Structure formats: structure tokens, C-alpha cells
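Need C-alpha cells for this chain, all 350 residues.
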Amino acid sequence: MNPAARPANAPDQHPAIPDEKIGVLLANLGTPDNYDYWSMRRYLGEFLSDSRVIDYPKWKWQPLLQLIILSKRPFSSGKAYKSIWNEEKGESPLMTITRDQTARIAEQMAARHGDRVMVDFCMRYGNPSTKSKVREMVAAGCQRILFFPLYPQYAGATTATANDQFFRALMEEKWQPSARTVPAYFDRPDYIDALAQSVERAYAGLDQAPEKLLVSYHGMPRRYLMEGDPYHCQCQKTTRLLKERLGWDDSRIATTFQSVFGPEEWLKPYTVEEVARLAREDGTRRIAVIAPAFSADCIETLEEINEEIRHSFVGAGGEAFTYIPCLNDDAAHIAALSAVIDENLAGWID
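Here are the C-alpha cells for all 350 residues:
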């Protein structure tokens, strides 16, 4: 990386300017800094105050959030995070995996584009913040930034709020870079193929194949679907494309939704209820669960699916529960994400 230098023909007092680069900023949901009460409270407070996530009127929602929810929920959420925490690195698995993904994508970009492309990651909630990483990229000479929310399916509560935060960060820059955002990639053949490969590997390692694969997506209020959010449709298409790539019929695979919060009706069927129903009513004894809405394993997969949802299935009479991990830094996943990046850099770089 070349150091900043004063432009040719500029007066002596002109500030130094670094060589021009292109930034690729990956974004994920976020993570608390630790699982203690105050770390959890700060993180949950930021997350649950986002009007894209909870769109109730602030006068109604904030008193409930600040006085009741944030007094109790940090304890239960902290306990859940503690059960999956990467103690060796002092961080959540989501942080570890996102850093590994970034490093591997950076290797791909360096091999193709040399030092012209700078790759880094940020979190919508918590650290490293979107604002801090935009600032670093601009300071490093990134006059163009490609912002990549790592959500295969678009949702207002994930992709849109990440983009919102990115644009807010740009508003504070004196020399504002050109910007692009990456759209949803749920129907890309290379992404679907990476998902299918992960299913095939998991099944190959089992003595008996599961009778059913549940494709579990993070839920959202059903009202959001009726208001025009495309998330539900994109989830359903992801499952259909995965089924077609695997060559299965409808009886072997189904779409469900997890992580229900609050009193509203959310997208159904609920994963935690459906696994119990399969065991209790259909006599299903072996199931597998995969979570394609998450690009990296996190609290919703490692704790909710692999502990709470597993317990629901076994408690209802199920015998064999297989959780198929997220794609994380799998080579096929990194190749697909890198291809998405290259396509979205078209016109910015040869």
C-alpha cells in the first residue's frame, strides 16, 4: 500500500492524499462485545431500538423496551451467548466467522486485483461499527465503496437497515465516495449449489438419511409480508431451488421460520413447533435442519436451532436431529460471494 502523498503541482500546504482504491465492505447483523449484563444491554438496546426491526411508535415501544425488556432480556440472552462463546478469542462465533470470511474474500480480491481493492467488514449493531469502517476506508483512499450486506434474501429488517446505516455513515464524510450496494443473491446458481453441497456432505456422513429436511429461516411479522417485504417469497424460492438442485420431491423438504418475538403473528410454520409436530403427529424420527438466511453461524443457529429446536424435536419423540452448519467460510461459499462482488464491481475495475 502506497503512503499518502501531496498531489503533483499542488501547493506545499496541500494535504496528502492516498492513492485511489476501491473498498468492499461486508456487513453482518452484529454481536455483543461480551455476554455480561451491560454488554448485552447495550447491544440489545441498539438492535431493538431500530425502527426497521421493531416498527411500533417510539412513545409506545421505548418505555416497554427500556423499563421491562432491557431489565430482563440481557440475562437470558447473555446465558445463551455464553453457551456458544468463543472463549479462546474472546468473541462470539459470528465475529470469528465473519473475520475468516473477510480474510478469504480479501485473498480472492488480491489475487484478481492486487492492492486496488480493500476488503473489510462491519456490523450493523455493535462493533466494528459501519461508521468506523467507512471512515477507515475513506482515509485509506477508497473513492468508491461497494457495500455488501451478507443476507442472501432481502428483508427490511436486515438488508435495508444495514444499507441505511451505510448511507448515514456516508453523510458524515467531507469527501464522500461513490457507493453501490449489493442486492439479494438468494437465487444465484453458485449459492444454491454451495447450499446443496453442504446438505450432501452432511447426509453422506450419517448412517441413515433424515426423513425430512427443514429449511429454517429467521422469522418476521406476517404483517411485513402484507406491506410489501419480499423476504417470504425469496425464502420460499430458495427452498424450491435447493430442492430442485438436490433432485428431491416435496415430501423430503419444507420451509419453516424461527426466532418469533412479541405478540404478533409471524411467518409460519414456526420451526420450534413444526419439529415437535413432525415427531408427535407424523411419527418422524430423523430430521435435519439448515438455515440459509444466515451466511454465518450465530446465536440463532448454534443456540436456538442446535439447542432449543433440537430439544423440541427430541422431547416430542424424535430420535436423530442433524443441524447442517451455515456456509461460513466454505470454499464454495467464498467463491460465490467473490463472484457476486466481481459482478457488482463491473465498470469500476477491469
